[in-house]
Design goal:
It contains nine helices and 13 strands. It has 306 residues and is α/β, with parallel strands linked by helices. The model is unreliable at 135-141 (pLDDT under 50).
């Protein structure tokens, strides 16, 4: 039975609850189907899809940190054609709801190719446009840090996209509010805040960086305060929905992120620690709402500043 007090809306899309596994931490959903019924989720943000298959960065490409982890996967995936042929049909067998397609490329043409190929697939609700990956050596960051480049990208995508565009921004820019406002004014339908934060670790025995790529993206509880700040500032300056992402491990974290201004949330690194994380958070949400005297999640969005 659907608990309507948990429902939220991303534009016209109604989610049964705001909990979405984050891209890159849940595969293509199929991998987690043995653990629990995926249909309890609000949606799923698929692993990043690129125009061609990518091996990703060299090993090692993951290391732990206090209160988090650093990854330098490098957008490893089989490419859009393989995803269309295999992953989307297989996921449809175990997940009846629509999903979020996270797309990444290094050129405008690459993004347009992805959108054109994915447009006709009815189990995709929105495109989450990854312009802020911190562990890919070439591409991505230009669109994330330069308003003019972002404007060109969004305008080009809007001409061909048959689905809403949600732009995934990173915090390591001079003015994330400017980037959010640029995205909205150019036609973006929503935002995802935030991507991982550039970071590194050094091996004390060798004196060299632990990861082959030297740097990667920090995720986990360590970045939740950074995400909260970005959501809090941006949600006051745009009128499009924000999907909050960064360090969520509990139902309390969900409420805090929605107080800051998020409409829905993505759970990332916690899935790698506990494959039942999203299920547990969904089950605990009504209890936390009762404790905090929250009747309806949709009514608390932006409470921190409203």
């Amino acid at each position: 039975m659907i608990n309507k007090s948990l429902q939220v809306k991303l534009g016209s899309w109604v989610l049964d609850n705001p909990i979405i596994p984050a891209s890159g931490t849940f595969g293509f959903g199929i991998e987690h189907a043995p653990y629990y019924d995926l249909n309890i989720l609000g949606s799923i943000s698929l692993k990043a899809i690129t125009p061609e298959s990518r091996y990703g960065n060299e090993l090692p490409r993951i290391c732990e940190t206090p209160s988090g982890m650093i990854n330098s996967i490098g957008l490893q995936n089989y490419g859009v054609d393989h995803v269309i042929k295999y992953h989307l049909p297989e996921l449809k067998k175990v997940f009846s709801k629509k999903v979020i397609a996270n797309i990444a490329a290094t050129t405008i043409e690459g993004y347009l190719e992805l959108i054109k190929k994915l447009n006709n697939h009815d189990n995709i609700a929105i495109y989450e446009v990854n312009i802020s990956c911190p562990n890919v050596e070439k591409g991505c960051m230009k669109f994330d840090s330069d308003p003019d480049s972002l404007t060109l990208l969004i305008k080009a995508m809007k001409e061909v996209s048959q689905k809403p565009l949600y732009i995934k921004l990173a915090p390591q820019v001079t003015d994330i509010v400017l980037m959010a406002k640029t995205a909205e004014s150019t036609g973006a339908d929503g935002l995802t805040l935030i991507n991982t934060v550039p970071a590194m670790r050094i091996n004390l025995n060798t004196g060299k960086p632990i990861m082959a790529n030297k740097v990667g993206g920090l995720s986990g509880p360590a970045i939740k305060p950074i995400a909260l700040r970005a959501i809090y500032l941006c949600s006051q300056n745009v009128n499009i929905p924000i999907i909050g992402c960064g360090g969520i491990t509990s139902a309390e974290d969900v409420v805090e992120m929605m107080y800051a201004g998020a409409t829905a949330v993505q759970v990332g690194s916690e899935n790698l620690i506990n494959p039942h994380a999203c299920r547990d958070i969904i089950n605990n949400l009504p209890k936390v709402m009762q404790k905090l005297k929250i009747d309806n999640l949709a009514n608390i969005i932006g409470k921190a500043w409203k």
